[in-house]
Write a structure and sequence with these properties.
Elements (H helix, E strand, L loop, with lengths): L1 H18 L17 H5 L27 E9 L4 E14 L2 E23 L5 E19 L4 E15 L2 E15 L4 E10 L2 E5 L1 H4 L5 E5 L3 E9 L5 E10 L4 E9 L5 E11 L10 E11 L3 E10 L8 E10 L1
Amino acid sequence: MKFKIIIISAFLILISSQVFAQLGGLPGAFTRMGFNSRGIGMGNAMTSVTKGDLSGLYNPSLSSFQDEHLINLSYSFLSFDRSLNFVSYTKNFKLPNQPEGGAGVTFAWINAGVGKIDGRDIDGFSIGELSTSENEFLFAPSIRVSPQVSVGVGFKLYYSKLYEGVSSTSFGFDLGGLYRVNDRVNIGLTVKDINSKYEWNTTDLYGENGKQTKEKFPILYTLGISYQLPNNFGLVSIDYETSNKKSNIVRIGAEVSPVKDFNFGAGVDRFNFSAVDKLGDARAMFGVGYQKQFKNYTIGIDYSFVIEPYSHNPFQTLTAVFKLK
């Protein structure tokens, strides 16, 4: 039993501090790292962006602005044997008798975890490699109630496996809204992870010494503003995020298209006004994307590069982009 206690404690430490340390290592941190190369490359300041490739993961109201069938497949390269991968599909569609409105939907799956954990018994002998995993499955419909206003809801299913016989499944949801002030300025609002939580039950593992533990995700409130640059040259955006855990984070991003078929992005994420060292967890992000349009489809590849403050190796993500008319 002591061995099991040691292993579970080690996993909890890894998840809360070293794996995806955000908002004090609170649950769901893997969902706060970003969702594709384009968004990550722009500092994740995507709450109000309606230009280019979109995802309801950032704001469930955005999918109603995605004209093509958009499929993103992302794979990340991370230090400390971490993994982070994404799959998403986004598309808008017209509603009957609503020529100026419409609706949209995003389906997505995020998978994260830590592998190659060196398992040892209480005497220090190896018992093989261990791993953890976390998953979010999202269904996010949206509707444009007018040409200027879109609203959406993201329904989220979480599944996390910490150890053999120790797992958690829960439901949560996001709310989002988007207001187009004019052709260049957007304002977006989101409330994320309402009711999201992990509930751990170790009674099967420890018997009468087991416990039931509930860990609630922080509820995040985000306000975003974006501005479209003249002549479709690019855009700039800024997000302000607060939470019920008293965090106050600013994200800034920009994207330009100086060359046909190429986009270049840069941004800063996690500038935390609530921290003593406001730049301590901030990270610079960069991205580049190439897309080639054919008659009825578009294919492309996006890449993002993030300088992590607690690692010598960067956080890199590759996203394959497929768009069908």
